[in-house]
Structure formats: structure tokens, C-alpha cells
């Protein structure tokens, strides 16, 4: 196996987030399901954007947030995702490269605008997402950078992208390239909404192509169509080598080769915005796994990153995650 140029390469929906505060009455008036992600069309995106309170425009997208977190840990990351040739697309490209992530995917020349996610955050820190996928879904095998995937220790696939057949084929192709290069492939289920839509295809992907699975408790229960957490853990143990299941304030449960490890949540003085908590937990886990660290240490890195992200608005770190890891007594060496 040749030396890796990257620790992690992410494949996902390239989205610009618009994050604004609201109350439950606003969600009700706009028929927004609290705490969930709902796909919307361009007309609805324009209407909702006009109705929302003034917000922050921040480059986002689940896997892109994870890669920004990985870069904050000092690790080397790359990203593959589709934007349009427009202003928001340029903002997304600039922000991700400025965060230290190698991003060079060619933009969509003709078609819909760059994707955007309209996130309304209630006082209890729950985020309710209305997402116009735009250019991000026009992703196919042609966009897979085989050389970069082969040169990455871990390929990280975002479940939100798993909608069109072209993207499904691209996921399989990416995993095949990674396996041929003796690398690892990981997947995040992203949202129960995604699991409900693609359960059978996700199960097949996990069984045949995934080494590392990320999910929250609700997503895992949905994947295996059970309301029994232990039953779901048994099922996922049989289907993938490593799994990381987040459980909000209960922390996380990690599985590696059939062995289970519990990770406590890091204390947070005030939860401001849960946007990106799972993305950043994955950032810590993937950084640790890419560096060959003990599974419990990987989980602690995930918990540290998740705690930082929920302490402020936005899904990208405000401070150096490598610095926080150092304060917690975890050395990432020259990462």
C-alpha cells in the first residue's frame, strides 16, 4: 500500500447553510417538522428564506462540516461535492479551502443553483432543516477522483447524497477504489428520513462496502426496523467492522470487531445549537481512526468536537480542535 496523501476524503452534498433563530410558533406557521430535515424545491426555498429571521450564511453540508473538523484537528482532508457556477458556489469553495480542505470538484455549468439548507434553531437548541439540494445532487461517477480516494486512508460517504441512482453508483465506485487500494470506507446514515427512503439500499451498501458506519440511535433503529437498541446493536455488529452510534446527552456507543465501548458526552455549559453535532463527532472519530489511535480515544475526540460545535451557532469549529484535544491530554503528534 502506497503512503497516504490524505487522512480522510469526504463525498457529500455541497450546501450553504442559512441559520436563524426562531420559536416553535414559527415552525408551526411554516409547517416545519421540528428537529427533522425536509427536502424542499426552489420556490419553497425562496418563500421560506423570505419568512425567516435574519440569519448567518455559512458554508455547510454534512460531510464538508466533518472535513472542516478534521482539518481543525490538524489532519489532512479532501472533499468531493458539486456546486453550481454561481456566487454561493464560489463562497462554498473558498470557505472549504480556507479551512484547510483540498476541494477541487468542477462546478455544474448548467442547471440548478448551489444547494442551500435553511436551518431554524429553537431556544431548546433543536435545529429544523429545510433543504433545497440544487446542484449538489447532480453528482455521478464522473466526479469521483480515483487518485485522491486511493491516496486517502478513509473515504467518508454522506447519506444525504444517496438519493439519485447516479450517486448510489458513485458510492459503490468510490468504495471499490478504496478497497482496491487497501483503504477503508465509511458511511454516515445522515438522517432517519434518508434511512426510511433508502433502507434496503443502505443495508446492501453497509453489508458489502462499508468498514465504518456512523449513525445516531434513531437512524440505527430505523435501519434495522426495531425499537430495541440492543437488538439494533447486534444487527449492526454482524454487518460492519466498526460502528459509532451517537445518543445525544447519553454519549455514544462504539463497536469494533464485536467489542462494545461506551463514550460519555463531554460537558457543555450551555447548548446553543445542535447543528453539526454528529458531523463533528465523526470528525473526531475519523481523525483518530486515520491516526491508528485506540477506539476509546477516537470516541473521546468525537465527543470533544461535538461539545465544541453545540456550544455556538454554526456547524464548523470556532477554536482549534487539536488544541482542545491537547488540553484533554490527547496528543495527535504531527497531525
From TrEMBL:
Q: What is the lineage of its organism?
A: Bacteria, Pseudomonadati, Pseudomonadota, Alphaproteobacteria, Maricaulales
Which Pfam families has this protein been placed in?
A: PfkB (PF00294)
Q: What Gene Ontology molecular-function terms does this entry list?
A: kinase activity
Name of this protein = Adenosine kinase
Top-level taxon in the UniProt lineage: Bacteria
Domain Carbohydrate kinase PfkB: from-to ranges: 57-317
Key word Transferase present in the record? yes
Q: What family classification does the UniProt entry report for this protein?
A: Belongs to the carbohydrate kinase PfkB family.
Alphabetical keyword list: Kinase, Transferase
PROSITE patterns for this protein: PFKB_KINASES_2
